[in-house]
Amino acid sequence: MTRPVDTIGGIPAHPLFVHIPVVLIPLATFGVLLSLWPKLRGALLLPSAVVGFIGTVGVAFTTQSGESLEERVPESAALDNHKELGEMARNFSLLFLLVLGAAVVVWYLAKRPESAPVLAKLVTPLLAVSLVVGGVATWFLIDAGHAGAKITWDRVLKNAPAGGEGGEGGG
Q1: N or C terminus of the chain with fewer C-beta within 10 Å?
Q2: pLDDT the model gives residue 22
Q3: Are 14 and 82 in contact (CB under 8 A)?
Q4: Predicted TM-score of the model (pTM)
Q5: What is the DSSP string of 103-135?
Q6: Would residue 167 count as lying in a domain?
Q7: For the chain, how long is the longest CA-to-CA vector?
């Protein structure tokens, strides 16, 4: 098995990778929301699925780099919470992608003249389920990100010099 990317330019990769799903999963979810209107569906459904796919791949990179970073961070209840929220974000992002992918396939099949009319009736419910799952994935991404940022900033502030001195410019 190949080793995940641990650092990028000397910076831990995890906080860099996390921006991929944090931006793209909500963006894809918004695209699904707009795709509920049939006039916008043709323009937005496939791009939303592509953005959702890239966001889900970003979740995988984020998870791998987080597992690598975990080895250098002291174990704590806050870290366990962050990991659990990250796993939920990963699971719901994957489920979002699967339901959205099903909606795209059904939508394309429903456009074919020989397809059964029932397929066209499935697109909107699949998009609605995708919207809900994408919203839940977004929620877990935000919650996991907040938990991770809190761990980081608590450590930074704990190690900061008293009185706010230090840093560039010498105080």
Answers
A1: N
A2: 96
A3: no
A4: 0.86
A5: HHHHHHHHTSTTS-HHHHHHHHHHHHHHHHHHH
A6: no
A7: 74
